[in-house]
Each structure stands twice: as C-alpha cells, then as structure tokens.
Amino acid sequence: MAVSPTEAPVESPGVDQNGLLVVENLKKYFPITRGIIFQREIAAVKAVDGVSFSVRQGETLGVVGESGCGKSTMARCIMRLLDPTAGRITFDGRDITNLSRAEMRPFRRELMMIFQDPYASLNPRKRVGFIVSEALEVHNMGTEAENKRRVQELLDVVGLNPEHYNRFPHEFSGGQRQRIGIARALAVNPKLIVCDEPVSALDVSVQAQILNLLKDLQSTFGLTYVFIAHDLNVVRHISDRVMVMYLGHGVEIAPKSKLYTAPKHPYTGALLSAVPVPDPDARGKKKVVLEGDVPNPINPPSACWFHPRCPRFQEGHCDVETPPLYSFSEGQFAACHYPLEGWPLTEDEMRRPSSGPVS
Amino acid sequence: MALLEVRDLKTHFRTDDGIVKAVDGVSFSVEKGKTLGIVGESGSGKSVTCLSIMGLNPKRNTISSGEAIFNGKNLLTMGSNELREIRGNDLAMIFQDPMTSLNPVHRIGHQLVEAVQLHRDVSKKQARARALDLLKAVGIPRAERRIDDYPHQFSGGMRQRVMIAMALVNDPDLLIADEPTTALDVTTQAQILKLMTTLQHEVDSAIIMITHDLGVIAEIADDVVVMYAARVAEQGPVDALFKHPQHPYTWGLLGSLPRLDADVERLVQIQGQPPSLLNPPRGCRFHPRCPYVMNICTTEEPRLMPAGDHRDHLQACHLDQATKDREAAKLLAGTMAEAS
Question: What is the pTM of this model?
Fold first, then answer.
C-alpha cells in the first residue's frame, strides 16, 4: 500500500504544464491501522487515487461529484492542508508537493480557500475585522491602520457595510457570513482561490448573490478559481472547464460547452440526467436512474471504478481493463471504453453502446 | 371534497422577543392522488405549516388558528389521542434529515414493526412480514438480512428509503415530505423521487412535498404554493406557475436558478435577506426586496387574488396585469432564448 512520494508522475493527457496550478497523478490514501503499539496498516481509504488536471491563469475549473468522491480531500491536498500520498502539485511554476510548513508560508498568500460551512469556518469569538485582517498580520503586510482601511475596503467589495468591522460572526446571516469568508480569502491578494462548496449551504436567492459576487471579483481581480460543488447547475454557471470525479478519480474533464452538451462518460450522463429541471414540460423525459450507492473506497471495484453501476457495462472488458483518459474533441477527456455516442440519449441507448470499444 | 383542506392557517410562537408569526394565514387544498409542492426560502414557514397540520408543534407557547380539514375532521382541534390514531396511519410524514430521524439504538425492523402494531391489530410475525415487504418495495437490497441492521449501517440514501418505508407502512392517504431529498446527492435524489411517484401511483395517496428546489417541484408536483415570509405569495397549477409566474418573488426564484440547459451571464438576484417574522415589513412583505415596488406596496398588504381569469391561479401582488404578463414573458424568454 505504501506509495513512495517520489514516484515519478506519469505523463497525463490534457495537462497543460504552463498552467497556474498543475496537479499530476495526485493520490491521498488514509491508512486504517490496527494495534496499539505497533500500528499495522491493514487497509487504506483511497480518497483521491490519481487525479491530474491543470488550471490556467484567470480560469475557473469546476469539480463535481457525489459525496465521498474525494473532491474536498483533493482541495485540501492542493492547499497542503493534507499531505498527498503521491503525485505532484505545481503552483506558479514551483513544485509545492513536499515543501515544509515554513517553505510553504509565502505560497499561502497566493493560494486561499473559501470553505463550505459559513457557520463553522468563522471563529465565533473573534470580530469580523480580526478574522479578515488575520492573514494580513501573519504575512506582515502593512501597519495596523493600513490593514483596518484594507479590511473596510474589502467588506465594501464583498457587499457588506464597512461599519460591520467590529461585529461578531453570529450577528450575520449565512449569506453574509459567506461574504466574510470571501473577504478573508481576498485580503492577501491571492492568485488562486479554492472554493469548497461555497454556496451549498445557502438558499437559492442568496446563492445567486454569492455566485454573481464571485464572478464579479474574478473579472475585477483576475482571480483563478477551483470551484468544488455537487450541484451541476451551479458548476455550469461559474466554470470554464469542468472535471467530474468518481471514487477518487477524474472520470471526465472537458470545457463546459462540451461537458453539458456532449458528455462522453456514462457517469457524467447519469449525473446530468438526474438533475431536476425547473420546467414542467421536461417531465416526460426518461431519466437514467443509477442503481445502488457509491462503492466503498477502501475496497474499490476492479478496473473501471464505475462498472458495478454503469448502464453500459461490458463483462470481461470494463471489469478487467482500467480505462485510460481517452481524448475526444478539443480538450475533452473521458475514462471510458464505451463512451456515449451523443446526447441526450434514451435509457435504452444508454444501455446499448452502438460501437465497439475505443482504442 | 378535497382530502385535506387548509383554511387560513396561522401558527404563532410566543418567544422572549415577542410573537413570531411563523405561519400567518395560509390556505390550500390537496386532492386524493395528487402532489402539492410548497416552495420558499429557509424561514418562510413551509415546515411549520406541515408541523401544524401534523400537530407536532410544541403545545407550550404555540398559538394556532384556522382549520385543517382532513377526511372531514379538523386536525387542529382534535384531541391528542384521536390525533395519534391518525398520525402514522392515514397521515404520515417523512423528515428532512435521514441521519437523525431514525432511532439509532433500535433495529430498522423493530422500528417498522412498531409503526405497524401501533395502528393494526396484527401479530408480530404479520407486522414483520409487512415491514419486509415495504423494505423490498423501497428497494433495499437483501432486505431479509438488512431488516435486522441498525440505522448506522445504512447510507444516507438507504436511510431515507427506510423513512419512506416507515411512512408508507400503513398505506397513508396523505404523505407529507419535508425536504426529503435535500441532504442527498442528485443521483440518490433521482432514485428517491422515482420511488415516491411509483409508490404514490400504487397506493393512490396524496403527497405534500416541501422543498426549496424548483426543479424538484417541476418534476413531481401538480399544484404549487410559493411561500414568502409566512404568507402565500402565489399558488396554482404547476404549468401555470412556471409558464405564467405572476409574483416578483417567483420571478426572482426562477431567475436566480443557474440552469443546466442555458448559459446566463448573470443570475437574477433578489437583493437583501428574508425579513424577520418578529416584525415583518408593513404592506407587502416582499416590498423591501422587490424591484417593482410602488407606493401602495409599502402601506397596503396585497390580497391573494385570481391571476387574470384563471380561478385556480392565485397571486398576491399590486402590480397591474399587463406589467406582470410583460415581465413574466421577458423572464421566460430570457431562459428560453439561451436554451435553444
């Protein structure tokens, strides 16, 4: 189970080495141990198991997947809040995979994160001014007076009243707290912000406010986002490219125009067809309803990770040979031997691949 | 005669800060075999409406008025013994959070058998057989073995299935589902919605579906109630509501949804926050956030009136019909144009 962190990353398709953030063959295994003194490793949860992608300057990469597919673990690895088991993370041309805490510190200014839960991610005992300016102080950026002005400016930018400087988080609603979280991430002028489900705890009307705000900030400050969400509508709205994750793997990555109109991986197809469309006329359309649950990442299925739930599973191929990321049209990659021929497909067409396996 | 007829339901809570009018004059009816969807943001009173119908609000400090006529009897004035006979039998509820609504220290089978034996004079063996049938019906694999599992051994989607099995165990006439799929992934949500509609057709029960997801509403509801700040903003048949929305709040909800079938540069956003129900705004409750606000909106509360000549499509807004038709058409044209 031990994968040495020095293992050379495999050349991965679709990864632009000049991207602001380049992630190659990233793996994160959580060991399950037994024994008190001599902890033997008996198994490992393969939370992220070989994910590769790159994000260009100024771009938004959306990451979607069901709970437990490794989205958040991946985000934490990129932020170096968790140490990856294997793989390489390159940020702005520098390998940050194995940097120590001290070496990592200058990068923390350029790499920020917005968290999912606006109630748990703000310290309830600190005032808003402190929460937002803490990063400025840590990085010794400016005097106290300058920082105060900067924080008030930031509060204004994210649509809060600068007078809220001295308030506590509990005085704010969920949407406002998320704005505080955004102000905190912006404080040190980062290049890349990793957003881990920033709107999933919010009501639709507030969600729209936050999504618009994130888009505005991106065009004003030239930010780059890695935007993680389980809501495909939200990801479509905000992203330029989208990666679909399943069981710790990136199963499809494509520009959003391709992913939503011509998905190749059956899992992407199933996800798209499962999203309820706010239009009563769409009701007649047959959905592809996946059976069962996501398998246990301690003991993932052989070969293609999706084969036990896949509507177009071919015995003797999908459960034997692991599909590589095949290249389709410009910038679209999917790990499937029997990719979807078109979209939308009927349930029957989903079940019957019309052509042989791709080679 | 409708299966459930709710008239002018009000539920107020006495708190230290004053009276919170959580539900303030809501009326609707549900026909046998039909699905009513209730949409609204957090705190709009959708859950409290249903808890009031079920008689599950705490007795202390709660003031309820109005009527909820179910099968000819008023649920709100019913004694607790009589209510207990109906609840879980003719009237069942599925709660939002499948993680906390099952008892963690009892086996799944035991909890289902208990629900059957409370309302039916059957032996334990028969009750268990019924429980097993239901678990199979909701699609629990290897139900014979899993019936003796504890809730923690089930995943979120499976627990929600168990909740549905428990609600359906006595073939209820009316099933109230309070955000049954909010905590679940889209693929699991699709499984659960499909299951609920299939079972509805088999048992011919009515469903009240509470959700904040207009997509779910469009998918399964026959009629819709849009709630805002404890009142009904708009209600009507699902087609009318999505094709001819009449209330600026409904427009805001529809416009703020990022869509799978259309690229929109900017989402329509409803400014500000929902109001506090301790001290709701005067006049129309939506006026502080409404982009179409007029003088009359700040002083006079709009009554729920038929939209044009559609008697079953009601809306509470002072705007004139021509403006409404124009704005609704504009909103829908926006999403349609981008969809094609």
Answer: 0.86
